[in-house]
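Researcher: Last one for today. Full complex below.
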Amino acid sequence: MLARARAAVVAQGNLTSFLFVLPALVIFAVFYVYPFLNMVFLSFHEWRGIGPLHFIGLQNYQEIVGDRLWWNSMAHAGYITLIALTFQNALAFGLALACDREIRMKRFYRLVFFIPPVLSEVVVGLMGNWILNPGLQNGQHIGLLNHLLYSSGFPQLVNNWLGDPRTALTTIAIVHSWKGFGWGFIMLLVGLQTIDKQLYEAARVDGASAWKAFVHITVPMMLPVILVVMILTILGSMQVFVLILSMVNEGLVNHTDVPATYILTSMIGNGRFGYACAQAVIFGVILVGVSFIMKRMSDWVKRI
Amino acid sequence: MRRLLMLCCCSLLVVFSGCAQPAGPGNKLVLWHWMTDCHDTFLKLAQQYQKETGVEVTVRLLAPSDAYSRMTIAAAQANVLPDIYGILGIKAMAADFIKAGLVADLTGEMQANGGAWENSLFDKALADKRFDPDNIYGVKPGIYGVPVNLTNQQMLYNKRLLAKAGITAPPVTFDAFIKDAQALKRVGITPFVSGWGELWLLHCFATNYAFNIMGEKKVLATFRGEVKYTDPDWIKVFNVFVVLRDKGVLIDGIVTKGNKYAEQDFALERAAFAFNGSWCVNVYRNMNSDLEYGVMLPPMVSKAFPLKIWGGAGSSFMVNAVSPNKDQAIAFLKWFTAKTQQVSLAVETSTLPANKEALKESLTTVSPVLGEFFKGMDQATHPTIWPVNEDPQVMEVFDRAIQGIIIGEKTALQAARDVQKAKDHQLSKGAR
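Model: Here's the assembly. Have a good evening.
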C-alpha cells in the first residue's frame, strides 16, 4: 500500500517535470526536428518548391560530389573561417588582455569593442559598401578607404576592393572579423578575469618574465575558453551569409560564393529545392563533424 | 497541477496562434506585396475602399522582393497564402502555383460584360499573366492575374553631364555610344552605371542585344537547344561586354553593385548613362528632384533586327483560388484597376498605370520622362510571354560568364564555351 502511494507520488513528480519540459520539447520538435527531417526527405526529391515531388534517390547527393562550385564555396567559407580564427581571435585576445589590465577608461573600451557585434550584418554591410566604394566623383574618391589611401600618399594601393577577385573574399573576411571580434573579446575577457591573480604574483616572485607568465599561466588557464571561442568562430564564420549579400549582392562571378549563398541560389535562383536541401544536409553534417572534432579536442585539452 | 496544465496549454496556444492563416472569411481581405515605394498609396486606397464598401483590406508589405518571393513560396507550401498576392520570378513559377490550385482563373470575370475588365487593361501588361492554349507549362488556358502597373527597362542619360562633354543628342548606335563614353571620360565623367550585382538586370541588358544581333527566332532556337551559344552571333553578344570593359565605359564595381546604389550613383550625377526600369522616375525624384535626364533605347549594335527591351506588367496581383473571400478579392481588384484609382496610383508613385484610360491621363500629368518610357512599350517583350525560356541554371552560368568578362577573367569565346557546356549538361539531363 505504502509502495503504491510512493510510486504514485514519484509518478506525479515525473509528470510535473515532464509537463515543465513539454512546451520546450514541442517547440523544438515542431521548429527543429520536423523541418530537419523534412529537409532530409526533400533532399531525395526533385522539387521546385510548389507542385509534385519526384523521387530521385541519391541523385542530388551524387551531383553535389561533382559540383565544383559547391566545393569552391566550401573552400571560400573555410578561408573566411581561417581569417576569423587567426586575425579576429588574435585581435579579440589582444584587446581582452589590454582591457584586463588596470588602464584608464577600460569600461569605455569594453563598450566600444562590443558595438560591432551588436550591429546588424546588413548595417555592417552597408557601412562596408560606403567605406569600400570604388567610385569617383569630380575626381575625388567616394569610398573612405580609397580616399584615405589616396590622400595619405598611397595612390598605388587604391583598389576596387569588392570588385577585384584577388581582394573581394579577403575584404569580406576582414569586415566579418571586425563585426565578430566583440563576442570573442567579451568571452576571453571574462576568462582572463577568472584567473587567480595570485598565480601571477607567485610567478613574479619566482622571477618569471611577463612573457613566461603569459605562456605558462595565461594560455593554459585560458585554453578551455579559447576552444569555445574557436568553436563559435568556426560555426559563425562557416555560415556567413547576410554580410555577403549586403556587400556583393548576388556575388562576384563565383568568387564570393559560400555554402549559404550557394544554397539560396539553388533554391530561389534555380528553383531546385531538393538539390538545395541536399546541400544543406551535407553542410549541416560537415558543421556537426567540425563541432564534434573541436569538442574532442576540448576534452583532450582539459585532460592534460 | 491544474494550473500547470493550463500554463502548458496556454504556451502551446501562443506558439501555434502565430501559424494561423492570415485571411479569414467575412468583409476582410489580406493583400501581400513587395513594393516599398507604393505601400503608402496602397494603404490609402485600401482605406478608401473600406469607406466605399465596408470591406477592410489589410495591406502587408514584405520587402525586399527576394524575401517576398521566399515568403510566398513558403506560404504556398503551408497553404496560408493571403487572399491577394503577387508571384515573382519566372513564368514557370506562376505556372506551378496555378497547377497547385493556388491561383484563381479570372478569365470569366475579365471577359464578362463584353470583356469590360480585360479591355480596360493594357494588352502587354495582361499578356504576362495570360496562358495561351498549348502553352509549354501545361496550364489550362486563361488569365490568372491582374496587372497593377506597367514597366520597361531602358537607358537613361543625364542631360547636364552630356552637355558638359559636348554631346548634343543621346547616341542611337553602339559605336556612337562608345564614342560619347570616351568624350565623357575625357572630362572626368564615368559613362555608365547599372545595378548588375542583381543578375536579372544584367541578363535583361544582354538579351536586349541578343534580340538586336540575331533576332527573336534565333534566340528562342538557342533556348530550345537548336543553336549553340558558341555561334558567331552569340559571340557578338558577349563581345558587347568586352567592348564596354575595354573602353572603360562601366563604373568601377558594377558587377557587385545593387540597383539601389546604381540609382544613387545616377541620381547624384556620378555617371552619365544608366540602365534601369521605369520605376526609377519615382526613385530619382526622391533622391534628386533637380536631376535633368531623358530616356533612350539601348544603342543598337546591328541594324539586322529590331532591338527589343524587357517590358510589360510591372507588378500583378493574383487571387488565392482557395480563399473563402475569392469574390471580394476579385471585386477589390476590379476597383483597384479602375481609372480613378489607377490615376491616383500613377500620380503618387510616378509609375505607368495598367489601365488604358488612366495611362492616357497620367502620361500628360505625371512626368514627361514616364511618357518617354511609355514610347518604348512598342519594342517591349518579356521572358514571361516567350513561348520558351532558357533553363535557370544555364541563365545563371550565362550571367556569371558575362560578369567574368567584365572583370577581365574571360574572353567572349571562353564565356560562350562555358555557357554551352552548361547548356549541353542540362540538355543531356533532359534527355535522360
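The domain at 26-150+312-384 of chain B is CATH 3.40.190.10 (D-Maltodextrin-Binding Protein; domain 2). Chain B touches chain A through 49 residues (CB under 8 Å).
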